[in-house]
Design goal:
With 438 residues, this protein is α+β, with helices and mostly antiparallel strands. The chain has a domain at 158-284 and 348-435: Aminopeptidase (3-Layer(aba) Sandwich), CATH 3.40.630. The chain has ten helices and 17 strands. The strands form six sheets. It has a seven-stranded mixed beta sheet, with helices on both faces. A hairpin with a 4-residue loop joins strand 11 (295-297) and strand 12 (302-304). The model has no long low-confidence stretch (mean pLDDT 79). InterPro entries: LytR/CpsA/Psr_CW_biosynth (IPR050922), LytR_CpsA_psr (IPR004474). Residues 206-347 form the Cell envelope-related transcriptional attenuator domain. Keywords: Membrane, Transmembrane, Transmembrane helix.
Length: 438
């Protein structure tokens, strides 16, 4: 303490001009300022001089003349940073600009993924793919149907039935079919003839079933039974039973006889024999019928009990042929109508039409068994079956009674009612209920 100045302990040194900086000991490291420029460095030998053989290093190197103190002896080669300059920061050289970097080349285009690595196609492409397959499937089905139709059409047995004759009736409204079931044994083996009780060869082929089908332009179809014993005029042969026309001149003479007796123009014809009849029924798996009374007929080869039952081809054939009932031919006509209704119902059932294993045997057996006119085709038969699918109106020609003649006991039509009945058919008018025979 200075004794001359009692205030020495409290004297303060006046501040110097400018803001004093912190002491070197308290300065932060690294000091603030511009970032140190990175320069090539040199390895310093033990004498403090740069090693002339040393490659440049990664850090800056200060020349020896700028070092604050000589390097300590016995030091290993080292790297020394540039000492901090209070005024200019790290070094006096201006900052160096880094050379512009070379732009990297664009990456090569990516290769398309392999087929296994590809995912599902886009939805739009997938839909288009499925649509194409659908079109191919439809085309295959259409071609298969066309091929099947051509095959079936070529298997029909065509004969000249509807040939013109002098004075033939002109065309009438609607479409009219003449259907016949004959006792023809064509294609039957001796064993089948014995099984079906056909009686072997009995001479000229005869028609056991004769039906007229009228398809109106609108409304239900009408299925009309023409009794085989109907007493009619046969062109060139006088008066005889209707089925005699079939035996005398075959289907062409039968068509001419029906047209002249009814005044109705026949547009199509289809006939079937014993063997074809049984095959069609068996192809359907049998026909379901309900009988009001038992039928025991050794001549037809059947012994049927009353009640509902399924008839095979053999029993169905005997059922439509038998006359071993109280009303004989009248009952047989009724049985034939019952059978036709059941047959059409079974053939046009959804279970048959939707099952190719049932439909194909049915149509193929029917086509091979049927005899049609030269101008008829399989699509005409399909149109007939489609028109009858809903159940036609079934009836028989109005009957006046029975009579004994030179050709045996015959059935006589009621001329007044039969005339009005067929006039309505020829003009495509609905038949009054009082003319229908159920």
């Amino acid at each position: 303490m200075n004794g001359d100045d009692p205030n020495a302990r409290t004297r303060r040194v006046p501040p110097q001009s400018g803001r004093p900086g912190p002491s070197p000991a308290n300065r932060p490291y690294p000091p603030p300022g511009p970032r140190q420029r990175i320069e090539p460095t040199h390895v310093i030998g033990r004498n403090g001089a740069p090693d002339p053989y040393a490659p440049p290093l990664a850090y800056s190197q200060v020349p020896p003349e700028r070092q604050a103190a000589p390097p300590r002896r016995n030091w290993a080669p080292t790297q020394q940073p540039v000492p901090f300059d209070d005024q200019r920061g790290y070094g006096h050289e201006p900052p160096r600009r880094e050379p512009p970097r070379r732009a990297a080349p664009p990456p090569p285009p990516a290769l398309p993924p392999k087929r296994a690595e590809r995912g599902a196609p886009p939805p739009r492409r997938r839909k288009l793919h499925l649509f194409r397959w659908f079109l191919v499937l439809i085309l295959v089905i259409v071609l298969a149907l066309i091929g099947a139709i051509i095959k079936l059409d070529s298997s029909l047995n065509r004969i000249p039935v509807l040939a013109g004759y002098p004075g033939r009736l002109g065309d009438t409204p609607g479409t009219n079919w003449l259907l016949t079931g004959s006792d023809g044994r064509e294609g039957l083996t001796p064993e089948q003839e014995q099984e079906y009780s056909t009686g072997g060869d009995v001479g000229p082929e005869r028609s056991d079933t004769i039906m007229l089908v009228h398809l109106p332009k609108s409304g239900k179809a009408t299925l009309i039974s023409l009794p085989r014993d109907s007493f009619v005029s046969i062109p060139g042969h006088g008066k005889d039973k209707l089925n005699a026309a079939f035996a005398l001149g075959g289907p062409p003479l039968l068509v001419q006889t029906v047209e002249q007796a009814t005044g109705v123009h026949i547009d199509h014809y289809a006939g079937i024999g014993f063997g074809g009849f049984a095959n069609v029924v068996d192809a359907l798996g049998g026909i379901d019928l309900c009988l009001d009374q038992p039928i025991d007929d050794p001549l037809a080869g059947i012994d049927l009990q009353a009640g509902c039952q399924r008839l095979s081809g053999k029993n169905a054939l005997g059922f439509v042929r038998s006359r071993a009932t109280p009303r004989a031919d009248i009952d047989r006509i009724q049985h034939q109508r019952m059978f036709m209704t059941a047959l059409l119902k079974k053939a046009t059932d959804a279970g048959t039409l939707a099952n190719p294993f049932k439909l194909w045997p049915l149509v193929s057996d029917s086509a091979k068994s049927l005899k049609v006119d030269k101008g008829d085709h399989i699509w005409d038969l399909a149109q007939l079956g489609w028109a009858l699918r809903g159940g036609p109106v079934t009836t028989t020609v109005p009957i006046g009674g029975f009579s004994d003649t030179d050709v045996g006991n015959v059935l006589v039509w009621d001329k007044t009612k039969a005339g009005q009945f067929f006039d309505d058919i020829a003009n495509d008018r609905p038949i009054p209920d009082d003319l229908l025979t159920r």
